[in-house]
Amino acid sequence: MPDILSPCAPIAAEPCRVGALSLAPAPLEEMVSISSFSNSLPALREAVLHALGASLPPAPGTATRQQGLSILWIGPNQWLACAPQGSGLMEKLQVACGAHAALTDQTDGRVTLTLCGPYAHAIAAKLVPIDLHPRCFGLSSVALTQAGHIPVILMQRDRQPAYDFIVFRSLARSLHHDILAAMRGGIPESEQN
Amino acid sequence: MRIHCPYCCTRGVEEFTYRGDATVRRPDLDAPEAAWVDYVYLRDNPAGPHAEYWYHAAGCHSWLVVRRDTRTHEIFSVQTASEVSEA
Amino acid sequence: MNDLSASLPPETGRRGKTQPMRWARGNGIRGDKTIRFTFDGRVLEAHPGDTLASALLANGVRLVGRSFKYHRPRGILSAGPEEPNALVELREGAQREPNSRATVTEVFDGLAATSQNRWPTLKHDMLGANSLLAPVFSAGFYYKTFMWPASFWEKVYEPIIRRAAGLGRAADEADPDHYEKATAFCDVLVVGSGPAGLAAARAAAGAGARVILCEQDSLTGGRLRAERVMLDDRPGWAWAQDTEKYLRALPEVRIMTRTCVFGRYDGGCFGALERVADHVAVPQAGQPRQRLWRIVAGQCILATGGIERPIVFPDNDRPGIMLAGAVRSYVNRFGVVPGRQAVIYTNNDDGLRAAADLHDAGVRVAAIVDSRQPSSTAAQAMARQVGAALFAGGAIAGTTGHTGLKAVQVRDSAGKTRRLACDLLAVSGGWNPDIALATHHRTHPVYDDALNAFVVSSPAPGLHLAGFAAGALTTDAALAQGDALGRAAAQGAGSDPATGCAMVLPRAAEKEGYAIAPLWHALGRAGQAGKAFIDFQNDVTAKDVSLAAREGFWAVEHLKRYTTLGMATDQGKTANVNALAMMAWERGRSIAQTGTTIVRPPVQPCAIGALAGTHRGRHFKPHRLPPTHDWAVEAGCVLTSNGIWQRAQWYPRPDETSWQETVNREVRSVRSSVGFCDVTTLGKIDIQGADAATLLERVYVNAWRKLPVGRARYGLMLREDGFAFDDGTTARLAENHYVMTTTTANAGAVMRHLEFCHQCLWPGLDVRFISVTDAWAQIAVAGPRSRDVLREIIDESFDLSNEAFGYMGAANVRLRDGVGGRLFRLSFSGELAYEIAVPARYGDALARLLMRVGAPYGITPYGTEALGVMRIEKGHPAGPELNGQTTAHDLGMGRMLSRKKDFIGRAMAQRTALCDAARPTLIGLKPLHASDALVAGAHLLPRGAPADAASDQGWISSSAWSPTVESWIALGFLSHGPQRHGEVIAVHNPLAGTVIEAQVVPPVFVDPEGSRLHA
Ligand SMILES: [Zn+2]
Fold first, then answer.
1. Which of B84, C322, C682, C756 lies 20 to 30 Å from C89 when distance is taken between CA atoms?
2. What is the domain count for chain B?
3. Which chains touch C (3+ CB pairs under 8 A)?
4. Fold classification of C5-145 (topology level)
5. What is the fold, at CATH topology level, of the domain defined by C917-1015?
6. How many whole angstroms separate alpha carbon A147 and alpha carbon A130?
7. What is the band of C291 on the pLDDT scale with cuts at 50, 70, 90?
8. Was domain C309-430+513-545+572-594 assigned CATH 3.50.50.60?
9. Coil, strand or helix: which one is C533?
10. What is the pTM of this model?
11. How confident is the model at residue C146 (pLDDT cuts 50, 70, 90)?
12. Which chains touch B (3 or more CB pairs under 8 A)?
């Protein structure tokens, strides 16, 4: 009887709460990076739409999201597609666009930590040096930046507000600590008027 | 200093890594040694407008050519290195 | 939201037993609530809204500290952050904070403040004897007095000086408080919330801008709280309060009180320090004491007001001598009278107003000494109004009172001197616009002859000055200027000019004249009695400036360094201009010709803890954890840092007494049976595209095109200067798909290098790469039984035999339970070995599985130390060999350099000097006595040669005790190394002063034929 390997997450699933704020790892998703080969972009866009029923986001710094699927811009001609476990994301993409783009499985490379609750933007502002004002960073906006010393892909998941910090797996625990410390530091008085 | 990345918009300098003179061009393999020495070692150090490589290390990983005044840090233009190389 | 005293009218004559000098509630005080604090152990009462300074004054405490050099008794000079004298220690134990300015310290219930720089007590300070040594402590004393003998400096002079002439004591434990950082963005940043700042914020917000208003004080209003300006028949502070309330209700306005903007940086960035919990006894759990803000602003309006100048005259530093504007602040805002009988000394009309405020607070104003001749009509009117004697063209020639002012010597215009009893001298030498932030970035201030002060005439783009910071002399002018600039700044930041409506500005009732006549060189210069202080905090006197002038240190930068003028916590805010004026006078030049120094951030002291934020101790840097981390910790490993990675260094067993014993066991287990080690930390880069092979050809020295799918190859990268950069194996997974490994240390640098090659050098290449370091848990399984262990794990259908999956094989595999992975036959140890990669989430389980299935073979987890020993035994170069100074030739890999292609570093690697056979080249070393320790960094010399640079022929790069060879072994670089195998040389360790004899051997100590590797 072969041994069964059971998966192990770097961060416990139970959310950490400080006041009305909460921080929790998002459920493991299938993640595939899509990087367009030279002169393949129009074909790639069509193939992705065909394979996933969703388009590559039209502009840098944005994501398209529908029914559990999200496609985030993560660099010039580069995207990160995320879908629930069991979606067969890689297989679908390989069939449809293996010729147009480099496809790399990132399911295990990244961990998503979701910060949500009132004034979550004020907590995020302690971590990332970018403007989170709705006119600069709205729903489904994406930024590649750093939270303190840790590189992250930041996405606004919800207007509630809720933010996804997508981080290299090996750094997930350090980032979790840093976000939690920021939450414990409280909401700056000047945010609350 | 804040640098306008063509992909990521304006970001603080801490997201970027300075990578030196962007005016030098890699010689052909058979170029004279002097050309290689010039490419590898010799750098002008202008007080004034200069073109420099800045790598958006904590962002989109783009190599950028930033034209700026080294005295005032005023930035005149930012282009991606690939569009500069291809031009 | 502060609405402390909106409904509290001033209430006169409340002089009880406690707080005897509190005459009214003051517009910034909550008089209905009493709190207690201690000063030097004495319990005193105060009200919320008090600063430590106002609370001490309310209790009649005038003596607050001792001066830096002479230990002169000092009191409170100012009512703001410019305070040079009233420095105290706050709190106790680990939280003790020295040199805190009493004038900006908010009193809270239970605050413990202590005077400093005195022994044994503030009142009876033995170190006051320093005053008798005054000649020794004059300008430049450090440079002159302690020149000889040099050996006395550290042992004698410095300890004495430090004890006698220091300020507060730093806490000697780690700071237990939290600090944090945050970033904020706005269109318009307004610094200062006096009339100009509030008007500017209101106008900018009205024009549609996102506004941040920063006020370093706990309350908004600025001078409107210190003075009694009536705006549209209401107190100015009430207008400020209403305006603040209005602004707070606007969604795009953020008001940050207790927040000092301390620096202006490139690109519209500002540094600001928010005192989050300095005004409470204990921060809430997790709450930071201070928060460091980076504010990114499109435009900035500096409405920072002004700082009043003292007047330089003999003995002008006694407790009770106070700036006139500060007196007004204590009277009006705090409801405290700083004395019972006052004299006013001024060179301008503004200083006179203190007389009216004091008079109305019930203080007798004995005299107004007006240095102007003739004095103004305002002075005459004021003297009549308060019933004071007016000395037009008069001067203060001296003062008396050891620990507090008792009397002043007034010299009238005829030169006649008389003594006037008083316990308060309100002094105004005019005002300096507070332009510090405007002068960051090397903007030079210019001298304005009309204003008698330095101003910024052409501020940086996007920067505006409003109110007194820009020289506006009246409240009306400040309001109008703030309003206009607020709108202009909003438009400058991109707001639509059509947005917003004009707002009605209130009008001030009073005619606010200034009419200043310069008074720079009063009495007290060389040859006159008494010390006339210019810089109170550094005890710099008028004589010191004269001396500096005589000795040639007249340039402003020299003056500063020679006399220490303008240094320390106050940065000479009250001193600099008086000193420059005196220097100008000494030299017979104008102040404009003399010039001024410019300032750097921070404009106010900023704790290092705040700059560090949360990045301290264990969290100074983030940690990267490999997927087997938790298992390894459970298994009792000792961790080590590899960059920011945390890796298992070794796995001690309870019976082992030294790490060496542990490492020896781990090495023997691998060499005799099997062991495993997490190698996830090696950089892994997924490379795909039609030109993937071309890219590899260009970044590696060796050939790649013919590498078959399913095989890996060792590759060496050079820098463009021809020196080795990084190495690793790259496997071909499919026709156009490779996975590259890098060293742990260089993973980021290699990625950047590949991006450079692709984006800057060869943008036409059709290739894509992305890091997959974190995606795979990669574990090296090494040792003669490694194949047996893997057979238990890998799906049976995969043929692990040497014939089917030989050395340098690479394959996609399935584990027996179906998990997909990758298998590489790579070896760093020289044994039969594999690296197995599974999705990172299974890494922990894989380690546990290996322990179970490997148990029959005695499988041993090993750490980085055993890994290092085995790679030295096998002669694999690593970080110490690829140190940036070695070439492929030096590493014994000269023959790898392809001659058929261009690659990074090829041209420069061919330089004659880099191909010189005399260059130190990789060798192995074995001591003649196995137990003689070889140490990395030791120098290699010919046997018998003197230990000098001329004989130096190389160095040891890595060394270890080899349990396999049972000897110390080392890798090193030796001139003509490969030709000298067998020679005995000297290994010199200059740190230990030892010389060991060792034999030069080939750099492979184990299995040189490679039979184990290929088993
Ligand atoms: Zn970018």
1. C322
2. 1
3. A, B
4. Ubiquitin-like (UB roll) (3.10.20)
5. Elongation Factor Tu (Ef-tu); domain 3 (2.40.30)
6. 10
7. very high
8. yes
9. strand
10. 0.94
11. low
12. A, C
DSSP code for C20: T
pLDDT in tens, A39-84: 999 999 999 999 999 999 999 999 999 989 999 999 999 999 999 9
Domain of B9, in residue numbers? 2-25+34-86
CA C165/CA C162 separation, integer angstroms: 5
Phi, psi of C380 (to 5 degrees): -65, -45
Please give the average per-residue pLDDT across C482-510, as a whole number: 87
Record the tokens describing residue B49, joined without a space: 């407008």
Chain C residues close to B17, C-beta within 8 Å: 752
Identify all chain B residues contacting A130, using CB atoms and an 8 Å cutoff.
11
> According to the model, what pLDDT value does residue C713 have?
98
Asked if residue C445 has a cis previous peptide bond (ω within 30° of 0), the answer is no
Instruction: Nearest by CB to C267, from B1, B27, B31: name it.
Output: B1
- Which residues touch C718 (CB under 8 Å, ≥6 apart)? C701, C724, C725, C887, C888, C903, C904, C905, C906, C909
Number of helices (H), then strands (E), in chain B: 2, 6
Using the predicted structure, report yes or no on whether residue C165 has a pLDDT greater than 80. no
Q: Which residue among C268, C296, C761 places its CB closest to the CB of B26?
A: C761
Tokens at C651, concatenated: 């796995």
Q: Report the CATH superfamily, name and number, of domain C689-765+886-911.
A: Aminomethyltransferase beta-barrel domains (3.30.70.1400)
Q: pLDDT for C19-29, tens place per residue?
A: 999 999 899 99
Is the previous residue joined to C120 through a cis bond, with omega within 30 degrees of 0?
A: yes
State the best of C279, C296, C624 to mutate against chain A, taking most chain A CBs within 10 Å: C624
Beta bridge partners of B67: B51, B77
Q: What pLDDT sits at residue A135?
A: 92
The ipTM, to two decimals, is 0.98
Q: What percent of chain C has pLDDT over 70?
A: 93
pLDDT above 90 for C80 = yes
Where do the domains of chain A lie, and which CATH numbers do they carry? 16-27+109-186 (3.30.1360.120), 29-105 (3.30.70.1520)
Asked if pLDDT for residue C137 goes beyond 70, the answer is no
Strand order in the sheet with C675-678: C810-814, C820-824, C833-839, C776-782, C675-678, C860-861
Q: What is the spatial distance between Cα C399 and Cα C529, in angstroms, rounded to a whole number?
A: 11
Closest CA to C208 of C495, C501, C498: C495
What pLDDT, on a 0 to 100 scale, did the predictor assign at position C874? 97
Q: What is the CATH number of the domain that holds B66?
A: 3.30.2270.10
Ligand 1 centre from C64 Cα, in Å?
55
Give the pLDDT confidence of C597-632 residue by residue, as tens digits. Answer: 888 999 999 999 999 999 999 999 999 999 999 999
Amino acid, res. C692: A
DSSP code at position C867: H
Asked if A168 lies within 8 A of C776 by C-beta distance, the reply is: no
Which chain C residue shows the shortest CA-CA distance from B17? C752
- Mapped onto helix, strand or coil, the DSSP state of residue C734 is strand
For an interface test with A, the pick among C187, C250, C496, C686 (most A C-beta atoms closer than 10 Å) comes out as C686
**Closest Cα partner for C700 from C939, C955, C903?**
C903
Task: Specify the CATH number for C624-681+773-885; select among 3.20.20.70, 3.30.1360.120, 3.30.530.20, 3.30.70.2190.
Answer: 3.30.1360.120
Contact across the interface for A8 and C843, Cβ inside 8 Å: yes
Q: Where are the domains of chain C?
A: 5-145, 178-306+433-499, 309-430+513-545+572-594, 624-681+773-885, 689-765+886-911, 917-1015
> Confidence class of residue C155 from pLDDT cuts 50, 70 and 90?
low
pLDDT beyond 80 at C724: yes
Residue type, A64: T
C:871-910 residues touching chain B, CB 8 A cutoff: 902, 906-908
Quickly tell me which residue has 């240190």 as its tokens: C553
